[in-house]
Specification:
There is one protein chain. The protein has about 400 residues and is α+β, with helices and mostly antiparallel strands. Helices cover about 50% and strands about 15% of the residues. It has 10 helices and 10 strands. The strands form 3 sheets. The protein has a 4-stranded mixed beta sheet. A hairpin with a 2-residue loop joins strand 2 and strand 3. Helix 3 crosses helix 6. The radius of gyration is 21 Å and the shape is globular. The model has no long low-confidence stretch (mean pLDDT about 95).
């Protein structure tokens, strides 16, 4: 591969502290994550020690209150941290995004006592979280979930199966949405379930096309007992909490997608400037120059879109439509750019000797997780034209 040095992304950051933070993240990504990413993804190894390092560095609670171990960083900064991590290895970037999603319910809807008791360990104490909404029969139609929580004295008994759970089987805590009332979205409540709770177990991880280092598994809750102190929010408030969390989580997925796309572009440019055919670097040929230009333009547009949505969130303004747009555009961009990167590398792009094929396989899942891109189009259309008439 070429010795051409990859230039850091030019970023508009609001403070000197944010610039120092991004420099720290880039250093960790280049020293601790990127060098072993290909080997560990191929082996399906989850880098728990990296998450311990990120926790110690204060990078697992960036958007949350410093009173409980958070970093109090605006979302526009936090998302750019995710982008840098995902560019080094998507398992890590996505893992931080999912951990942030799993911490959201308690950080935003927990009681003061709950936050004091649990958040410091979740945000900076080395714990890793998972978010449990989807089920085998309720993916996009999340409001039809069947996992049930039944009152039992001063606590609850949870039974059911959750599906497609990132960090399933290795998480220290699970934010679980369960039915406590009638059918529909108003009968759902959120719970904080310890990873070692009796009756909680994980199936074997799914065998996936990409993102092999990040375990995705079904979680079985067989009479799991939790005290009422681990109920988050009011009874019946869980689905609203879940949707609010997903609005923020979709921005995390968008940022991760742009990170993967940027890594693919960097590799394509490096290869095209080194590889020579017909006596010239292939980057001299207009067909490839235009392709690289289009890839870079799509990435910059995606980055601007997710940052615009993040700034709305930071300002306390509605951002759900823009979050859906960012998730849709950025993940579609990642798919296009990674496919084009494979094409730039030609036959080498189709081999595991270069990471372009891994980027392409990883990009696909980003169009699916946290609401498929078809669901994002439905969300956007509802904001434009109102609910569907049925």
């Amino acid at each position: 591969m070429s010795d051409r040095e990859t230039q850091p992304v030019e970023r508009q950051l609001p403070t000197d502290e944010a610039r120092d933070l991004l420099a720290l993240v880039r250093d960790i990504a280049q020293r601790e994550i990127a060098p072993t990413a290909a080997e560990e993804e191929d082996a399906g190894r989850f880098p728990r020690e990296v998450f311990t390092l990120l926790s110690e560095a204060g990078l697992l609670g960036l958007p949350y209150d410093p009173e409980h171990g958070g970093g109090e960083q605006p979302y526009e900064v936090y998302l750019q941290v995710l982008e840098e991590l995902a560019a080094a290895r998507l398992t890590v970037g996505l893992g931080v995004s999912v951990h942030t999603l799993a911490s959201y319910a308690l950080a935003t809807h927990g009681t003061k006592q709950q936050q004091v008791e649990h958040l410091p360990a979740m945000l900076g104490g080395g714990l890793l979280g998972a978010y449990c909404l989807s089920e085998p029969s309720s993916g996009s139609d999340a409001a039809s979930l069947r996992t049930r929580a039944v009152r039992d004295g001063d606590g609850w008994v949870l039974s059911g199966t959750k599906a497609w759970i990132t960090h399933g089987g290795i998480a220290d805590f699970y934010t679980v949405m369960a039915r406590t009332g009638a059918d529909g979205p108003r009968g759902i409540t959120a719970f904080l379930v310890p990873g070692d709770a009796e009756g909680l177990s994980a199936a074997l991880p799914e065998k996936k096309m990409g993102l092999k280092g990040s375990p995705t598994a079904q979680i079985h809750l067989d009479g799991v007992r939790v005290p009422d102190e681990r109920r988050i929010g009011e009874e019946g408030q869980g689905f609203g909490i879940a949707l609010s969390a997903l609005d923020s989580g979709r921005l995390g997925i968008a940022a991760c997608a742009i990170g993967v796309a940027q890594a693919a572009l960097d590799q394509a440019v490096a290869y095209a400037t080194e590889r020579r055919q017909f006596g010239h670097p292939i980057a001299d040929f207009q067909g490839l120059r235009f392709l690289l230009a289009d890839m870079a333009t799509q990435i910059e547009a995606g980055r601007a879109l997710y940052l615009a949505a993040a700034r709305l969130k930071d300002a306390g303004r509605p951002f759900a439509k823009q979050a859906a747009m960012a998730k849709l555009h950025c993940t579609d961009t990642a798919m296009r750019v990674t496919v084009d990167a494979v094409q730039v590398l030609g036959g080498y792009g189709y081999t595991a000797d270069f990471p372009a094929e891994r980027y392409m396989r990883e990009a696909k899942v980003l169009q699916i997780v946290e609401g498929t891109n078809q669901i994002q189009r439905m969300v956007i259309a509802r904001h434009l034209a109102g609910p569907e008439s049925r």
